[in-house]
Amino acid sequence: MPDSPFGRIAAAMITPFTPEGELDLPAARRLAAHLVDRGGCDALVLSGTTGESPTTSDAEKTALVRAVAEAVGDRARVVTGVGTSDTRHSVELARAAARAGAHGLLVVTPYYSRPGQEAVARHLATVADATDLPVMLYDVPARTGEDTALSADTLRRLAEHPRVRAVKDCAQDLLKTATVLGSTGLLYYSGCDELNLPLRAIGAHGCVSTVANVAGPAVRGVLDAFDAGDHDGAARRHLALVPLIDAMMSQTPGAVAVKALFAAAGLPGGPPRPPLLPADEALTARLADALRQSLG
């Protein structure tokens, strides 16, 4: 497999908060070290969807990068989300992340204002021009709107940028993914846990996984088995995770699910920030049951 500046198994890490809702940097350091040293992850993605990036301030995002980079050192790659609907703001976040010690940038397509493909391409290229860090594009039309979904032509165009190296693929469009994989050198990462194995089977490099927060070794085990040539074993491992993936990603936002499981286990994470609401007892019980069912 080609080398990647973004690792192979990346946890889409939650952002821990105190019970009062403040950023909990000691908890972030402990969680980062756990995910890397015991959780099977060689990369951490901060301030993404699972990291509740819409509700954290610029200062909190920068402080989180600095704390996590210090906690994991050279044991893992630290990638952080800097994409917003404002190009200038995204550039400022990218430069702050670089100063704080990030190893790479995750840049979502701009949302709400519904820019066309030319505007999206210019926005992403401008952010990539802002630092020397490698960039992972974040294609997630379910959250940014179908109008700003990256087209195959736009992805091929951006692949020519020297710092655009990868795509976090949440488009759930296998034809587009296969088209770009076959015509560019972009490294693809599954951003939907149910597609980790299917995308690896057609050439994706790895995954950015929400489920890895609570089941990192099992997530890694799927791709390890596949890469070792044990395709039947990889399929069995993947199917065993489906109840957990379904419970965590279909019944509630990922950040809410992870924090509920952490709270049930007595681990730091704290509550989600509004407008998200904590899981109630019934949902927490369903999540815990799915975790036991998937991990045995």
Topology of helices and strands:
Layout: E1 9-12, H1 25-37, E2 43-46, H2 58-72, E3 77-81, H3 87-100, E4 104-108, H4 117-129, E5 135-139, H5 141-144, H6 152-158, E6 164-169, H7 174-183, E7 187-190, H8 196-201, E8 206-209, H9 212-227, H10 231-250, H11 254-264, H12 281-295
Parallel strand pairs: 1-2, 1-8, 2-3, 3-4, 4-5, 5-6, 6-7, 7-8
Q: How would you characterize this protein structure?
A:
The protein has 296 residues and is α/β, with parallel strands linked by helices. The chain has helices at residues 25-37, 58-72, 87-100, 117-129, 141-144, 152-158, 174-183, 196-201, 212-227, 231-250, 254-264, 281-295; strands at residues 9-12, 43-46, 77-81, 104-108, 135-139, 164-169, 187-190, 206-209. It has one domain (9-230): Aldolase class I (TIM Barrel), CATH 3.20.20. It has an 8-stranded parallel β-barrel, surrounded by 5 helices. Helix 2 (58-72) runs parallel beside helix 3 (87-100), helix 9 (212-227) packs antiparallel against helix 10 and helix 11 (254-264) packs across helix 12 (281-295). Pfam families: DHDPS. The record marks 49, 112 as: Part of a proton relay during catalysis. Its main location: cytoplasm. Keywords: Amino-acid biosynthesis, Cytoplasm, Diaminopimelate biosynthesis, Lyase, Lysine biosynthesis, Schiff base.
